[in-house]
Amino acid sequence: MDMMISNLQQQRQVTEQLRREAGVKRISVSQAVQDMIKFISEHQRDDCLIVGFSSQKANPFREKTLPCRSKLPSWRHSRGKLIIREIETASNLSSVNKKAVYQTFGQPTHLTHPHRLSKGEIVPGIQQEELKLRRSRLVESMRLFCSNNELNGKTLIVVIPSSYKKYMTEKIPYVYRQNSDFLYLTGCMEPDSILVLISKNDSFESVLCLRGRDPASELWDGPRTGIDQAVELFGVDKSIATNSFEDFAHHLMKQNRDCMIWYDFANEIHPDIHKTMQKFASQTKNKIWESPRPFVHQLRLYKSKAEQKLMKKSCEIASDAIKKAMRSSRPSISEAALQAQVDFECRINGAEYLAYPPVVASGPRANIIHYINNDNIVNDGDLILMDAGCEYHAYCSDITRTWPISGKFSPAQRTLYEVVYSVQTDLIKLCSKFPTLNQLYEVMGRLLAERLKESGVISQKVPPDEIKKCVSQFCPHHVSHYLGMDVHDTSTVPRHIPLEPGMVLTVEPGVYVNYDNRYANPEYHGIGIRIEDDVLITHEGPVVLTEPCPKHPDEIERLCCT
């Protein structure tokens, strides 16, 4: 990356020098350009290029200045460097204005987006060295697996594809989202890409397959990184064109007859790559096939300090957005308006988009767990259950809050809310003892049964031996899931393992009282409440990343009345 760093200040000085020479000394623009090229050459600059000039009249200098490229053959358009795209000149040559820097990578870099990425980062917040370490740890874990299963000495070939571009209708694409496993290991955000890891003995080689440069496609869809820059940008050992992958893989397997191939056949991430791998599986014999997915998920389960920082920011953005939605809510507002406000606030504060379609459920619609229609008007006296989160530089937040549209809970609403609030508070405290997610769920069931009975929500007519059984009628979902690059993160990691420092999980008890719930007293019918926070496990205890979002009933009432 250091070779690609552009000193923008020095470029500005060059431009200012050109302006002075063209305006003050009244020399020809052509001469000024030649002087500038000489200056850049003397300073061994290979990260900028004069494309041309424009003026109010036909430009007599364009044909003279453009051939200057040939004098410096290392200045290639495809190298992905910063380019001085155009300099406008007035007819009297008194002012010269450098236009915006042009991006020639397939994704933001710290050269093109210094407001988003720092030096050395491949994706915001994640350094190239961390990505290399992830790949190394993945191979180490696979080698350990082989050692424990008497598979030593085999060449490991790991194939992890990117996502592909999906279309909602002809020529209209969905917003592209990268395959999380691929992004975690490469930092590459381009579609139609493949990571191949080849491990022999104690060493391994990383190969990144990318789309080649294509001016016609790039005209419509934006620049690509291309093959030449992949090694330098992503820190891999080698790069090839994606359309060469089949030949490359065939040659690789032919060279390494005693190999173990790691590819996830259970999940079709990229149809074309999947077909190619199925073809290899049908043609090759005496090969061992294994899925890399559980091994990648095991790495992703533990968040590094850099990842924790990104997740904290994601949670802060979503917390602030929901907080503002609480403050602005009022009777007769639409659920859609509240959704739009949260979406807007998340994006304006740096999130790329919402992490999932949000639930904005008013009144009895809160009893529909995944209600995402959000097409009703909020009536006076209703509760609003909002489940929303954002994705900030590939890391997700997931928050649920419930609040009264009128600014004050009714007695029944308050009673039910305090039950959920007290249960959630106790579950978060329990995280300091490193339980499993399943143990959290068991404790939630027991606490809900006790407190629903104590508070009078459950009818006195319900026999004691039925109280525990009826809890599933009040809360039909699990209380927790892992959180990270995906909302329901690392899906191959079981819920029966103890929590450890570095893990992030949700804690989200809820109580939903449908009108046909025969266990609840009638005054609670139609009320649905859930409280969800994102919790980072540390040696010192659980850290609630979503703490900025109010949840105490008194705090919520104060906020809704402001």
Automatic annotation (TrEMBL):
Residues 4-68 form the G protein gamma domain. Its cofactor is Mn(2+). Transmembrane segments: none annotated. SUPFAM superfamilies: Creatinase/aminopeptidase, Creatinase/prolidase N-terminal domain, Transducin (heterotrimeric G protein), gamma chain. GO terms for cellular component: mitochondrion; plasma membrane. Keywords: Cell membrane, Hydrolase, Lipoprotein, Manganese, Membrane, Metal-binding, Methylation, Prenylation, Transducer. GO terms for molecular function: manganese ion binding; metalloaminopeptidase activity. CDD domains: GGL, Prolidase. InterPro entries: Aminopep_P_N, Creatin/AminoP/Spt16_N, Creatinase/aminopeptidase-like, G-protein_gamma-like_dom, GGL_sf, Pept_M24, X-Pro_dipept-like. It is found in: Cell membrane. Belongs to the G protein gamma family. Belongs to the peptidase M24B family. PANTHER family: XAA-PRO AMINOPEPTIDASE 3 (PTHR43226:SF4). This is G protein gamma domain-containing protein. It comes from Polyplax serrata.
